[in-house]
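pasting for the record
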Amino acid sequence: MQRLILLRHGKAERESLSGDDHARRLTPRGRRDALEAGQRLTEMGFTPDLALVSDAARTRETWESLKPVCDACEVRFDEDLYHAEAQTVLDRVREVAGQAGTVLVVGHNPGLHELVLRLLIEGGASGDLLNTARSRFPTSAAAVFLFDGQGRPVYDGLMMPPRGGYD
């Protein structure tokens, strides 16, 4: 793997009809924002070969919104990514690192946010960038990292939707 994209799912409903968090679906804004995030990533040249997606309804729907811009990407739904801690996400990524040039993870906070911060710190990101990343990692936000020859992360992009979504 040369590049890792960490994408938080789109904006979701506060509660599912069943009351089960796992079943929460995207709002219309969440679907639009997820598609916009995918389009922006593609415009920036960040097209994944492999997507690891939490099996929750909102992450699956985020993936469905991304498919038009990631149509050649293999997808794997993973129940262990549902509300996974940063280390679990990183372990999953390492398991597939030799199988793709660019890996996309569609997941949840706080694990994704914590992993973004961890990789920024490991990669020696500037204080300003760290402060921006610490302040928030909202729905449909994405962080992109390259990996050097020793497997160290190097910041490659941070995409934060404007407050209130891309509209």
